[in-house]
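Subject: Interface between my chains keeps coming out wrong

I've been trying for a while to get a sensible model of this assembly. When I model each chain on its own everything looks fine, but I need the whole thing in one frame so I can look at the contacts. Pasting all components below, labels as-is. Any help appreciated, I'm running out of ideas.
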Amino acid sequence: MANTTKINVRYNETDAMGVVHHAVYPVWFEMARTDYIKAIGYSYSRMEENGVMLPVTGLSLKYKRPAKYDDDVSVTVRITRLTPARIEFAYTITRCSNNEILVVGESAHAFVDASTFAPLNFKKAMPEFFSVLEREAQKDIQE
Amino acid sequence: MANTTKINVRYNETDAMGVVHHAVYPVWFEMARTDYIKAIGYSYSRMEENGVMLPVTGLSLKYKRPAKYDDDVSVTVRITRLTPARIEFAYTITRCSNNEILVVGESAHAFVDASTFAPLNFKKAMPEFFSVLEREAQKDIQE
Amino acid sequence: MANTTKINVRYNETDAMGVVHHAVYPVWFEMARTDYIKAIGYSYSRMEENGVMLPVTGLSLKYKRPAKYDDDVSVTVRITRLTPARIEFAYTITRCSNNEILVVGESAHAFVDASTFAPLNFKKAMPEFFSVLEREAQKDIQE
Amino acid sequence: MANTTKINVRYNETDAMGVVHHAVYPVWFEMARTDYIKAIGYSYSRMEENGVMLPVTGLSLKYKRPAKYDDDVSVTVRITRLTPARIEFAYTITRCSNNEILVVGESAHAFVDASTFAPLNFKKAMPEFFSVLEREAQKDIQE
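Reply #2:
Try treating it as a single job with all components included. I did that and got this:
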C-alpha cells in the first residue's frame, strides 16, 4: 500500500533562487522509501544486518513547481516493480497547504551483497521480507 | 563542444555504504553545466544579472559503479537539445584512475524570468548568448 | 523556555565512517532554532517578510559521540543571550534510545536588514516579537 | 607549513539568503585538511588503510562576510597543536577577488581506531607520518 512521509523544508535545502535545490528531492525520495519499509515492518538497518544493501541504479525526476523554505510537503511512494534481483518505486511530492504537485519521479534499485556489492537473490536472502514486499507490490501496482 | 570538469570526491559526499551518495551526482552535473557555460564565455551569474534563471525541469541518472572518497572523477557534458524556451544536457561521469564509467544522465531546463519564474524566450532575452549556445549545440549534437 | 526538536537521521547525512558527518549537526541546530521560534508563535519566514534576517555570526560544537543512520535524536535549544542587535542559543543533541549526549554547541546571530545585510535594531524592527524573545530568554537563562 | 586550497562556490551551497549556507564552511575546512595532508605526502585514505580515523571532536567558526555563488575562495590551514592522541587546525577563508576574510575557525580531532573508535597513540600507529606532522606543526606554530 502506498505510504506517505511528511517533511518540513529546511533552510539549507534552499538555494539562491529562493527555492529548494533540485538535488534535495532525491533525498526526500529516500526518506519516503525508508518510511515505506518501516511501515511494512522492516528497515534498511535490518537489511544491512542481513548483509544486503539496496543501492540506487536509476533515478528520474520531473520538476513541476518548486518547494520553498518552511513548506510542509508530503512524499507518497509505492512499488511499481519487484523481482528477486530488483525493486522500483514511484514518488509524488505535493505541497500540503494547497495540494499542488511539485515533483514526480521514479527510482530503481538492485539487491546486492553488502560486502562485495555483487547482485544477490533477495527472495533467498530474506524470504519473509521478500514475501511482504511482494504482497505490498501487488497492492501498489493495482492502485 | 563537449566540456569536461574534474572533481575530487569530498568526504561528506560519501555515505555509510562507503561510497558517494546517489544525490551528489546531480550536484556534479550542475558544476559541469556551470563550467560548460564559462568555457563558452558566459556564466550563470551573468544570466541572473540579465533577469534569467535556468531551473531544472527534468533529470535522469543511471548509476553503473560507485565513486569513492578521494577519487578524481571527470564529468563530461554536452548539449543535446536547444530551443528559445528550453535546453537539455547529457553527462558522463568517469573515474580518472581507470576510465570506468560511473554514472550517465541527462537534465532538461527551462529559461524563466528570474522574478516571476514565468517562461521566457531566451533568444530574445540574450540574443548573443543564445547564438553562441546554438553554435555549440550543433557541434555537440554532431559529436 | 527550552524547546526540543526530534530528528530521524537520514541516510545521506552519514559518511564513509558509518556515522553522521560532523557538518550535519549545525543543520540540526538550525532546525531546532526554527522550531523554537515557531513554538513561541513566530517564524523565520515572518521575520524575512518584515525585512529582517538572522545570519549566523559564530558557531561552536563539541562532538562527544556519533549519531548513526536511523537514530532518533532530540535537539534541545535555549536562548543564552539577547540584545536588540544580537541573539545567542545553546544546544544539546541526545540519542533518544539511550539518552546519551552526542553533541553540544552554541550559535551567535546578528539581526540584519534583509536587503543590505546591515545590522539593525530588532527591538525597533519587530517590538512585539522582541518582547516575546526577551520573556523567553529570561526563562531560558534561569533554567 | 600552512597550505591553501582553492574552491569555487557551488550553486547548491547557497541558500535563500543568496549566500553560502553556514554549514558549508566546515566542509571546506575538511577539504583544506585533506589537501594539507596530501601536501605533506600522506592521505586520509592511507590513514584508514592503517586502521586510523581522525573524527572531529570540536569545531568553532566566526563568520565575518558571506561567500556568494561562483566566488573563488581560498582556505588556508595550519596545525596549531599536535600530540600522539590529538591534532588541532586553524583555518582562514578569504575571497580571492578582493582578499576579504570571510570566515575563520578551528577544529580539534582525536586519532582513533577505525573499527572500535577507541583513542589510539598515533605516534605508535604510524610513526613516520607522525614525525612528518610534528615537523610541519613546528613550522606552523612558529608562523
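Reply #3:
Confirming on my end. The first strand of chain D starts at residue 3 and ends at 8.
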